[in-house]
Amino acid sequence: MKSIFYLMLIVLSVSLFSCQDKEEPLSPLIGTWENRTYVDSLDIWMIDSWAFKNDSLMTYERFVRETETENILGYQMIADSWYNYKGDIFKYYYSDALLYWGGESDTRWIRYGPKEEMRPGVVDIFMIPTGTLTFSQNGLEFILKPDDLELETGESDEFPARTFIKVD
Hints:
Layout: H1 2-18, E1 31-39, E2 44-52, E3 57-65, E4 72-86, E5 89-93, E6 96-99, E7 119-122, E8 130-135, E9 141-146, E10 149-150, E11 156-157, E12 162-166
Antiparallel strand pairs: 1-2, 1-12, 2-3, 3-4, 4-5, 4-6, 5-8, 6-7, 8-9, 9-12, 10-11
């Protein structure tokens, strides 16, 4: 009887200690990454920011800065998204988003504004974007090479590779 009691005590102790291990995210993407593109005709920086929260959820923000790293001038879109990253294959998807619809007609073909003026909308993505991620040696940069899109005509439309840098 005593041995059963001690056996149950050991099993209970082991189960309690094993439950205390925190499950850490597996994705090397956790954090915020930016793709920065300078638009010389408008003297602004277009920023695609992906904030990876865990192994499957991220927030996508597209905004405009005055410089590469400072002074956000306004936003175009903010969307909660899901993603899947296995091996070197990366897939993501979003549809519901906050979008900036306003702005006067002027010579700017890029419309952006304050977060407060953004309104809900749906982004119609006709496919799940898929591509290959390649990380730099230090893990602070990755290149996303999207898969080519096969058109109904049988031709292929190639998307350019984009470089993202880790900002936090």
